[in-house]
Amino acid sequence: MEPVLPDRETLISLVEQNLILKNKNTIDDPSLEMNKILEEESKLSEELRDLTKLKTISSLLKEVNVNFELLEFENCYYSLKSLRSKLTENNSVFIKQTYRFQRSTALYIDSLHSKLIDSIHEVITTKFWNITSNTIKFNPKIKIGDDDVQFDYTEFMSFAKSSFFTKDTSSSEFWFLATMELGDYKENVRSKLNDINRNFIEFNNIIGSIKNLIYDDSVNVTYSTQDNILSFQKGESNDYLEKIIEKSQAIVNFLTETFLPNNLYVIVSEVGSLLSTELFKTAKSNASQLLRDRKNPLIDLVRSINSSLIKLSNEIKSNWKYNGSDIDHLLNDEKVYINLLIDKTFDAEIKMLRESFKNKENFTVNAKVPFATAAKYENNQTILPRGKKNEEPSKSTGEDHAEDDWGWDPELDVSSEKGVEIDEDDAWDDHIDLNIDEDDTVNQETNNHDHTSKADVASIGPDVDDGWDDEWDIGENLSSPKKTKAELSINAETLSVEITKLPTLFKKSLQNFLGDCEKIGFNKSDAQYFEYKLNLLQTSFFAIATAHFNKDNWYQLYIDTRQICSENSNLLRLEELATRFLENNIFVREKTAYNLISMQLKELMTNERNPSWESVIEHLLPFIQHEIIEPLTRIGGEESMNEIIKFFNFLYNDCIVRVIQQWDIISEKNSENISELVSLVASNTDVPHLHNIPKYKELRDKFIFIGKFLPLHLKEIMELFYNGDFYLFSTQEIIQWLRLLFADTPIRKNAIDDIYEIREVALEDQ
């Protein structure tokens, strides 16, 4: 900047050019001359003051540059702050200057802001810290420049935080950013400050790297105390456990020896819990290797890491609290050690089972075993509801039965659905939405088998001599029935059932598990834990096996599981799972049968003169044959007979009889239709090998007899009653059918009176 006063020659030249001095003798008014001189003097004085202020700004600019040369970053910061303050104070002088001068000055000062932040960012990110793809290095003291200017990390970061990263500096009015005008420089400053704050004050970058190292078991990690460098690179190791534990040790040493307490607070809050959890998981999952020798040096290393983590938690006082008790308990408690060895044995057996199931031959039928049936079942003829085996059946408490001197035992109801009306919104539909026109499931199932044609089944009707007269003979000897499609190659006395290799596989797995546990000394561990693992082995086996059986061979899994349980009465969990599996599969099929029957009954109600029998002939009967009777027959044993009879009780009574009994009236035409429905269902659901089972015979006889009397006149029905043919029916059942079939007339009333009189039931007790 030029001096304020010119040299002597220049001053003389200016005086000579002054018109006032040059023409002094020509001025007439001396006072006018004086005013002009004073004005000129005032103007020159003001310019002198402005130039003096600009000179101050120039001096501050020189000061900033000198501080840069000396690497005095803190002084640079305060010099820039003073410079901005002076510019604000002398703004009136600054705006008097040319626009070019203003813009060039503003641009230059903004560049100094950017230069300072670039320098601070470089020192922090490349001098104090040096982070690469496989190393994290920290230098607490550094030397920079030709003069080896020394910087201390603590002091430098204290200056950076107090100057750029406080609550005041985070606002949009922070002077360092608010006074900058040029967008590019301003954006650079903001970006560098954000990077410093994110990665070297909050340490997001280092925290992310440590988390990745903890999770990545393929990385070898080492820490050099002398160089303060954490190194990591992928590589194989002869001892996996040693590599993982040494990795944890390196990370913990890096944290404790590198970071200041206030920095550790940030990092430990994020990775402390992860470090302790992974250390415990590593020790637990490798307990057999870690604890096989009490003198194993890795045990001491784990204890050392655990102690360091406890110390970190106590000293830092972060939101991560850790006392190390889990690892101490793991390393010192013998029961825990034995439990871990049991875990290892269990895992090995589960792995073996999974591998075994990859071989399809293991769940393909390869053997037959005999199974006693009829003799056992004849001693237990009661149909038990599902899930209530070996319980005493409850006696009927109905008022009408209590007063029935005939002592008839009404059939027991095995279904929870009683008196269900045919309704589109029936609860069954919530589970199975069966649409014959749209759903191909039933068609696919039935088309895969040979089944009775529509013409064959339809021929069994009330207008055809179809052998019904023979069926009505309740006393008929059923010991030598004709074979039907429901009959398989089964001996009524001893049933041979087919099994796969699964029983052998599980037996071997169980023996291995129990044998290994005995060698381990499981009696020294928690008995409940051993029982838990034994039950879990059974559950896991069944769960794995379930995935390999489908709707076509589900029964085979039950057969195999039952065979396993028959050889070992202690496998209660497996037995329970098999029982529920059987019940669930039958229950699903019962719902399908119920839906199909409901569709047929609805057809009878809406189109009684010319009903379609598609639901029964083309869908229901093949479905019952191939999806229920055949699988249950293949199961064999007491379960087979019991479940088949329970299903027939559900089909005959819950799906058909009790639903029809909810109707208001049965027309003459529908009495014939229902009779034909009973004929179709009864003739296609016969299981010959159950003919010697009294309960089965009773169910079918009663159901068939309903089909016989429905189309008859009242007189004919009463003749049957007088002959004792209604011996399977209670008094109220007979009366209920009469009220459905016939109008309220004196003849019907007399018939009902006769029934009460014969059954010795008083009219007033009705």
From TrEMBL:
Chain positions covered by the region annotation Disordered: 382-412, 442-462
Gene Ontology biological process terms in this record: endoplasmic reticulum to Golgi vesicle-mediated transport; ER-dependent peroxisome organization; mitotic spindle assembly checkpoint signaling; retrograde vesicle-mediated transport, Golgi to endoplasmic reticulum
Domain Retrograde transport protein Dsl1 C-terminal: 571-763
Biased composition (Acidic residues): 401-412
Biased composition (Basic and acidic residues): 388-400
One Pfam family hit: Dsl1_C
PANTHER family (alphabetical): CENTROMERE/KINETOCHORE PROTEIN ZW10, CENTROMERE_KINETOCHORE PROTEIN ZW10 HOMOLOG
Protein name as annotated: Retrograde transport protein Dsl1 C-terminal domain-containing protein
Lineage, top ranks: Eukaryota, Fungi, Dikarya, Ascomycota, Saccharomycotina
Gene name, Swiss-Prot/TrEMBL: KAFR0D03860
